[in-house]
Design goal:
Elements: H1 23-38, E1 43-45, E2 55-58, E3 70-81, E4 84-90, E5 93-102, E6 105-111, E7 117-122, H2 124-137, H3 148-170, H4 177-191
Antiparallel strand pairs: 1-2, 2-3, 3-6, 4-5, 6-7
This protein binds zinc ion.
């Protein structure tokens, strides 16, 4: 498992709700936390590790371990209120940062790894992270939500990501779109 970078096609995949949580999926979540910590991120969505599951992991605290680790399965956001702008980055677009305006307060419903539903009324950084990661599950990236000015500021950097990805693909480092779609469909058939 590795974190894929923009414009990998799985980052544009809309994931379907998970219908099954098993030991293999729990292992996968543990591996996602490991990768997230290694990359010093605070959130990581399954699309970012080339998987079609509708789930993401997050940890905003400095501590590692189950007490601080949040897993959101099939998250649904409602009751968006207010508006707030802050700088965001993304492990799939390393070292690119830009201001993003989002609702300041949200309600989220999701399931945890035990299959229990939970609800949270969130604000601050956690509200932002949950919105950023839920966007990933719909194939949306933070660079899609920039103001015109901010989009212009990051255009060169985004172009460079696209050029590097094209080079990697030309060198045989990334499967073609058809192979990626087939693999995602096979996994979905089992879990969604
Ligand atoms: Zn991201």
């Amino acid at each position: 498992m590795e974190i894929v970078q923009y414009p990998h096609p799985t980052l544009r995949h809309t994931s379907k709700p998970l219908r099954r949580v098993d030991a293999a999926l729990r292992d996968m979540v543990a591996e996602m936390f490991r990768l997230m910590y290694q990359a010093q991120g605070v959130g990581l969505a399954a699309n970012q590790v080339d998987l079609p599951y509708r789930l993401f992991v997050a940890n905003l605290g400095g501590e590692r371990g189950p007490d601080e680790e949040l897993v959101f399965i099939n998250p649904v956001i409602s009751h968006r209120r207010g508006s707030d702008e802050a700088e965001e980055g993304c492990l799939s677009l390393p070292e690119l940062y830009a201001p993003v305006r989002r609702p300041a307060t949200i309600t989220v419903n999701a399931y945890n790894l035990d299959g229990r539903e939970f609800q949270g009324e969130l604000d601050g950084l956690l509200a932002r992270v949950v919105q950023h990661e839920t966007d990933h599950l719909d194939g949306v990236l933070f660079i899609d939500r920039l103001s015109e000015t901010a989009a212009m500021d990051v255009r060169d950097a985004v172009d460079q990501f696209e050029a590097r990805f094209a080079d990697r693909r030309a060198a045989g480092g990334v499967p073609d779109d058809g192979q990626i779609a087939l693999r995602l469909a096979q996994i979905e058939a089992e879990y969604c």
